[in-house]
Amino acid sequence: MKRLIALFLVTASIAGLAACNTIAGAGEDVSAGGHAVTNSAEKAK
Fold first, then answer.
1. Which domain holds residue 29?
2. Per-residue DSSP letter, 45
3. Cα dihedral sign for 27, 32, 37, 41?
4. What is the pTM of this model?
């Protein structure tokens, strides 16, 4: 039973780390889109 719990915790930790990396990448993409909109607005002035 202890091995099953340990395996579950290791698997959950790996999945959590992968998700953090994906969310960080998505945040960078959203930030880049925001910068593009800001730059376009500045050029239109």
1. 1-44
2. -
3. positive
4. 0.50
> In this structure, what token pair is assigned to residue 26?
């998505």
Please tell me the distance from the alpha carbon of residue 34 to that of residue 40, in angstroms, as a whole number: 10
pLDDT tens digits for range 2-37: 888 888 888 888 777 677 777 777 778 888 888 888
User: How many domains does the structure of the chain reveal?
Assistant: 1
Sign, Cα dihedral of 20, 26, 31, 32? positive
Say how far apart CA 8 and CA 2 lie, in whole Å: 10
Tokens describing residue 7: 């395996």
